[in-house]
Specification:
alpha+beta; 6 helices; 3 strands; 48% helix; 15% strand
Length: 147
Amino acid sequence: SLSNIYVFNPEQLRNFFNNVNGSLKRGGHLILDSAGPPENLLAFLINDVLLRLEAEFIRLIAPVTRNTRRGLIVKHLGYRRSDNEILDSARAAGFDLEYQEAYDFLTEFKRSFIFQRILSTLPWTKVLFQKLGRAVPYTRMYCLRKL
């Protein structure tokens, strides 16, 4: 299941794990991609503070720059979950974690106009942001086994 659980509310996530459990044989595996950073302080600061401030700034300067074609659309973009939230839901549905890995440590920063500029103009920052990005990996993969 790749990149879909971020759109599920908590009840839908429980249903997802229960439905997959019902489709697998005992010992079967579910390969899961969480598609998005974990819920933590850095993800909160990027998503709920910085990106909102950037969006508000763009909305305010759009009339000045005469960029009237660019509108600001507000919509729900999914749920951030900690690893524990995902694993607790999986365990409640009868799964056990066999393996977990994190990838893609820059995407969360590249969503920001400011961070994009820093990354593109100062090459040495890529290493720094990749290290910092381990706290907000955009791709978290799980291998879960049905008990």
